[in-house]
Every structure is written in structure tokens, then in C-alpha cells.
Amino acid sequence: MDEIKHNDRPALRDPRWARLAIFVLGIGFLVLFVVLPLTTVVVEALRKGVGVYLKSLGDPDTQSAIRMTLSVAAIAVPLNCIFGVAAAWAFGKFEFRGKSILLSLIDLPFSVSPVIAGMVFLLVFGLQGWFGGWLREHHIKIVFALPGLVLATIFVTLPFVARELIPLMQEQGADEEEAARMLGAGGFRIFWSITLPNIKWALLYGVLLCNARAMGEFGAVSVVSGHIRGLTNTLPLQVDILYNEYNMVAAFATASLLAGLALVTLAAKSFLEWRFADQLALTRR
Amino acid sequence: MTIEIKNVFKTFGTYEALKGVSLKIEDGELMALLGPSGSGKTTLLRIIAGLDNPDSGTVLVHGQDLTKQAVRDRQVGFVFQHYSLFKHMTVSENVAFGLRVRPRNKRPSDEEIKRRVNELLGLVQLDRMAARYPQQLSGGQRQRVALARALAIEPKVLLLDEPFGALDARVRKELRSWVRKLHKEINVTSVFVTHDQEEALELADRVAIMNVGLIEQVASPTEAYDRPATAFVSEFLGFANRIDCKVNNGTAHIGGFDVPVDFGTYSGDAVAFVRPHQIELGRPNGHDIAQAKIDSIIALGPSARVDLTFGDGHLEVLIDREELSGLGLAVGDPCAITIRRAHVYKPN
């Protein structure tokens, strides 16, 4: 039996020029806006050779920025993960008053400019802020220190996990949870053996996106960090500083690290999808 | 285990789902909750299960008040309408779940769990599907997995919500007789919800017929069919011709036929329900009590359905096809009718 190929269906065949135009447009866009900038980063970073590249990455300030970025992500992402699952659980499995208002509040960090988020934290926790005096008396540093960076990052990345999970959990409903409850399972057991396995893929995507954004965040972090070199600078801030000092190679070398992190994230996602393809197909309705 | 439901009320917002329901289910009985959608039957089942709480009233299982007991301690097996199998677990993992989640001191050993799961899968004839995922099973197979999973916890009570609702007619029939056999074998007190009267009449020891949040009648299938307690039951259980009639002095006058009724001193309008097979046809002989005209004759296997115009209404009659051809009646002919039996109710 001959397989019916796309080309054998005259009704679906577009004129040659149209096919070509769409192809060029699609690929052209991708090259212009994704491939070209990425290549530029790498090329510029390696302009003066691998040795200079490695040396600029070995700079103590850059090293500190790497540690800072990793620390911020390591704290902010798990916290938002917990919050996202809890929020999705509440929205997906229960009905309560004010649900829709809360639901739109979760999206607020998407619609508010990150700079404003940074300013808010400055206003609340800064020296001149509402709690500034009290915090100074108790020798607690929030703004211009790691806690401030973490707070700002949490705010900005708040919706990622929750947004990924809420529609899924709403669609799944509480049927399987009810079945588990009738079989004698307790609350934690139900969450661990029934709810979590059903949302793990969406959760993974949410966490990956959240992580990418947490590492790349600039605006909000810029306001609360105070740009103290070797102390409160994260990778994006470090790139900005180096660039403003016309230290192009170091700026692009640092930028290549950030881009590399993004690529690793993507690769991890693709790998997991490939590795568990059969499982994915099975659990999807 | 007996189940005793006492005066249960339940409202959702302004909607009254149950308006004072009482029902006693005997030990080992297979009881059907039958009613149209919106009659409150699923709500009642979920309350017996403990998935919903009644606004007032109690549910006693073997004398113990279930409403005060945590769901996990109740040992109630529940088969959901859409099975609610755990998608990410294999068939045998699904069945084993109820045993695995038991507290350590009550949990059987791994070998024991394996043995029990195999035994249950044998019971539902799915031994060879143990390693499959629910997605890889047909509807009927999923239903049996759901049943095995519910039975694994050795329930005191088994509850089934529209257990055959999502299956096609042939599989449904097969599963039905299979479930009846299974119930005889394990003899656990069971309640199932259905809107399909045939299913209820075929399976259940007794049927509770529900309508708008109230139980209209609790009886054996034969009893409910032969002596429907209310007009609703008459109409809902099998088809019945509805004929308006008049009652006076303890007698209902239905198109020339008199049926004694026990309405006290009531006289006035009433409705009579006559089943299609309780009307006899004959050739008109000039002094018949009532006459009708044949509109159509439809052969249904061994019997025939005859539609009649009677007065200003319609009647449906079920008659043996041989008998009909013996009478020599055809479409368009006038015929004599005799109403052998009727159930008469005061208008609401």
C-alpha cells in the first residue's frame, strides 16, 4: 500500500514561491534573532583567544558573580517551586471565595516592570525604608546583600511554576486523589504518590523556566544589589559593568557563560523528553 | 454489614440535592439507587462513602456512625464512574495501592501483597494485564481493574457510581452478569448508582428509586415494577400509558373501565398508568366497552408494538405477534380494547 505523502495531495500543495517565502521567513527570523546574537557572543568572547577568555572568567569579581548567581537561583528556585505547587494545589483541587482575584495576582510579576519590583523592596527594606531602622538595629542586611537579591528574584520568577501547574491540575481535577483517599491513603501519601507523579513534567518545565529567568534577571536585581563588585554582583550585572567599561572580551566571555547556562537548560529538557518519551505518551490522556 | 441512612439532608449553595433521605441496606444486599440525573443518587452514594458530608442526618455502618470517622478508617470500597485509575501506575500497582498505603503494623508483607494482587486479578480475569498501564486497556478492562482495586482493601461496603455508564451495550451486559456472579461469590454489602432501569432491575436485590432529592420507593425489582408506589415510579420504571381519569366513591373510571382505588373520600381528577402488555386487543363485536383505532404496528422480535388512537390520546400496546395475526387486525382497523390492570394516582 502506498503511503500518501503530503505532496500527493494537490489540495494541500502551495505554489513554489509561497513555500519558499514562508521557509525563508521562518528560518531568517530564527537566524536573525536567535542564532546570530548567540554566535556573536561566542565570537566576541573568543576574539582574543582562548587564553584571554579563560583569564577573564577567572577574574575574582566574575567568579564572585558566578557564585552569587548560583546562590540566588539555588534559594529562589526551590522556594518558588514549593510555592507554585502549593498554589496550584489550592487552585486545582479546591473552590473558595476570591479565587479569581488571587489567580490574577499571581500574574502580577509578569505585568509589573522588574525595576518597580526592585524599587518596592528598596522602599520596604532599604535604610530609608519602612523597616530600615529596625533592621539596622538588629544588624540584618537585606538590601545590597544576598537576601535582597533573593527576594527580588523570587518576586520576578513567582508565576513560572504556578502558571505551568495550575491549568494542568485544574484539568486533572481531584478524581485520582479521591480514589486514593478511599483506599486509605493519608494526605502526604496522596500528594507524593498520586499528585506529584501526575504533574512532574509540568513541574520540571516550570522549574527550568524559573531557573533560567532567576539566573538571567537584571532589572529588579540591579536595583537591590547596589552593584558592589565582588560582593553583590550577579552575572547579568557583571556583564553590564564590564560592557560599560568597554571591556568587551570580558563582557562577552561572562555573557557566554549565561548563554551557556540557558543552552544547558534547554539540552536538559530535550534529553529528559527523549529519555522518557514512552512514559510521557502513556500518562498523557 | 448493614448500612442505615437516617434523615440525610444536603444542599449545594441554594440547590437541595437531598431532602431528608432514609434508607436501610441489609447485610450482603446488592442495592441499586435508581433515578434520573439530578435526583441526588450520586450525592447519596458520596455521602455513604464519606467523600461528602451531609448537612444533617447520620450514616450508620453496622451501628457505627461513619460521619464521625476518617475516610481512611472506614474501609469502604468505591468504584468511580470514570474509574479514576492511577495513570502512572501499572494494573498491579493500582490494585496493590490500598494495601501499600496501610500503616506499617497493618501492612501485609511484599509477598503477601503480590499474592493478593494476583488473586484479585484472577478474580476479575485480568491476570495477563498485570504489567499494563490503564491507557493500554479497554473500558471494560479498566472497569474491572477499578473493581479489583476497590476489593483489595477488603471493604466492609462496596459502592459503585454508575459502574457501567461509560461502556458500550455489549460490554455492559457482559459485565453486568459478571458483577452479579461476583457479588454472590464475595457477598459484600453493595450499593450502586444507575440511571438505567434495566441495569437496576437485572442486578439489584432491592431498588431505591429516587426523584428530586427524595426516595420514592424502596422495593424488590418485581415489587417496584408490579406495584409502583407513586406516579413517578410508574412512569420511570418501564413504559406506562398515562390516561387521565375520574375517581368517585372509591372507583376510578378509565375509558369505560372501573378500577377500585383506595383514596378514602376523595373524588375528582386522577391519573392512571397502564403498561403496554396490560391492554388486551380484540376484534370489535358491536358491544365493546371501549374502541380504538390502529395507527401502526411495529414488529419487535416475538412481540409487536401496536400504537392506537384512543379517545383524544394515544396508547401503546405490546402483544404477541402470533396472537395479533390470529386476530387479523391491520393498520387503520378499529379494535376493541380491554384494560386488565391500572395504577391510579391522585394528581400532584
What Rg of chain B do the Cα atoms give? 25 Å
The ordered H/E elements of chain A are HHHHHHHHHHHHHH
Q: Determine Rg of chain A (CA atoms, Å).
A: 24 Å
- Uncertain segments of chain B are none
Mean pLDDT of chain B: 89
How does the major sheet of chain A shape up?
A: none
Q: CA-to-CA gap between the ends of chain A?
A: 31 Å
Q: Please state roughly what percent of the residues of chain A sit in beta strands, choosing from under 5%, 5-15%, 15-25%, 25-35%, 35-45% or over 45%.
A: under 5%
- Largest sheet data of chain B: 6 strands, mixed
Described by the principal axes of the CA atoms, the overall outline of chain A is globular
What is the number of E strands of chain B? 20
Secondary structure tally, helices of chain B: 9
Distance between the termini of chain B: 38 Å
Tell me the greatest interface. Answer: A-B, 20 and 27 residues
By secondary-structure content and strand pairing, the structural class of chain B works out as alpha+beta
Structure commentary:
Chain A is globular, with a radius of gyration of 24 Å. Chain A has helices at residues 16-45, 49-58, 60-93, 99-106, 108-111, 114-125, 132-137, 146-172, 175-182, 187-216, 219-225, 235-244, 248-275, 277-283. In chain A, helix 6 (114-125) crosses helix 8 (146-172) and helix 9 packs antiparallel against helix 10. Chain A is mainly α and 285 residues long. Chain B has a six-stranded mixed β-sheet, with helices on both faces. Chain B has a five-stranded antiparallel β-sheet with strand order 13-12-11-14-20. In chain B, strand 9 and strand 10 (214-219) form a beta hairpin. The chains are: A mainly alpha (285), B alpha+beta (348). Chain A binds chain B through residues 175-176, 178-186, 189, 193-194, 197-198, 279, 282-283, 285, and chain B through 49, 51, 71-73, 75-78, 80, 82, 84-88, 97-98, 101-102, 133, 135-136, 149-150, 152-153.
